[in-house]
Amino acid sequence: MFRSEYADVPPVELPIHEAVLGRAADFGDQPALIDGTDGTTLTYEQVDRFHRRLAAALADAGIRKGDVLALHSPNTIAFPTAFYAATRAGASVTTVHPLATPEEFAKQLADSGARWIITVSPLLESARRAAELAGGIREIFVCDNAPGHRSLIDMLASAAPEPQIDFDPAEDIAALPYSSGTTGIPKGVMLTHRQIATNLAQLEPPVPAGPGDRILAVLPFFHIYGLTALMNAPLRKGATVVVLPRFDLETFLAAIENHRITGLYVAPPIVLGLAKHPAVARYDLSSLKYVISAAAPLDATLAAACAERLGLPPIGQAYGMTELSPGTHVVPLDALHHAPPGTVGKLIAGTEMRIVSLDDPGKDLAPGDPGEILIRGPQVMKGYLGRPDATADMIDTDGWLHTGDIGHVDEDGWLFVVDRVKELIKYKGFQVAPAELEALLLTHPGIADAAVIGAYNDDGNEIPHAFVVRQPTAADLGENEIMLYVAERVVPYKRVRRITFINTVPRAASGKILRRQLREHT
């Protein structure tokens, strides 16, 4: 068993809005959130006051403790206010990909039991359609303005009393993001107030932040990585978060230059752009002090090229998953220069890890030997919503969460993730479940059977690669028709990006797809 070198941190027994904004008065007029495109700024005093007024308005609208509210929005400076207002009103927030199709959105609404939606006017039609498909939605609010819908801006004028909710941080669900776990369809991950808040405290020693730090939030807040690293963590310590709604390299670089960004939390495709794109040379990025990459494996050579080009310390990495609130490992900022290349870091405070044999899961392995990574700590999720069997498959009776990742630890405690047991595909940091795409492909009348695996493209990104068996009557079925069929029904990152036609899908006697055989075709 491996234990963190850091002293344990006590559980944070606070609702997440108090854990993050409890010191807002201390930071007062300092900028909390800045719109990276037009410069609109909210101070800490405003974020605190606005989220309290909005919580009062939401409670007045009928939101009660235990309700689920779906937050469906790209990154904006309104997103954090909406999130903390909803939790202060007692709701659990299920975050929704802004580009989810109405059908995908509806599945999440129905599965989570959501009764309320907060969206933005450009996404309103998708939200309305999803609400119709799911049923049970009481009201759709908008962050900006749209005819027929109450605006959060107008609701700030509410004179209703601020709700006084009796929270149990250890049991009450703050966030309900959806994850495919190690495989299968997306499931609601129940993260309590205490789990998320304690994870922030665990991450603080290795990656401290404070007033004067400026963090660029381009990774989505709806994803647990963005929610923690780009929203909760910096706002908890008085840093300034500069918000971008989507990644565009030139806009991203301009924001670093114009807002004097000091820290970046990114995924590997952004590291690739920083390392190789000619546009980087046209911007002054000298304010940057560090870059941390997570959400997917980062090639050590690419990381070194990026750091050299930017004149920065080596690029650090972090490791975790939605089911872990999400963090378990990070390269400490004060160790960037001497961390071994390719490591995802060391255990954060209060976290334990085992590396167990793939052949004998009860056998713990020594440093240097690769095996499955198991994690135990206060950040382990409460479980999957409504899926006790899936929860039991993920977390054993001793509290160890089985990540499905293969890694090894060196003698100094640095973790290296080398492969995945799980079938989950990570396209640019987003989770794509093969089973979900396989089920969709089989709805095409010309497809007799299908299997999906992760394969790497020329840019080093893992992509969904479909192996398709045509129906005898569909001999002329082509790649483009299949790709378009999938693209019309899923969010962009789930699109099938490569197709191979085969005669049969290899399967074990149990019916399980033999993905290893398919990988031999790639």
UniProtKB/TrEMBL annotation:
The keyword Ligase applies. InterPro entries: AMP-bd_C, AMP-bd_C_sf, AMP-binding_CS, AMP-dep_synth/lig_dom, ANL_N_sf. Keywords: ATP-binding, Ligase, Nucleotide-binding. GO terms for molecular function: ATP binding; CoA-ligase activity. It holds the Pfam family AMP-binding. It comes from the Bacteria. CDD domains: 4CL (cd05904). Residues 436-512 form the AMP-binding enzyme C-terminal domain. Residues 23-385 form the AMP-dependent synthetase/ligase domain. Belongs to the ATP-dependent AMP-binding enzyme family. This is AMP-dependent synthetase.
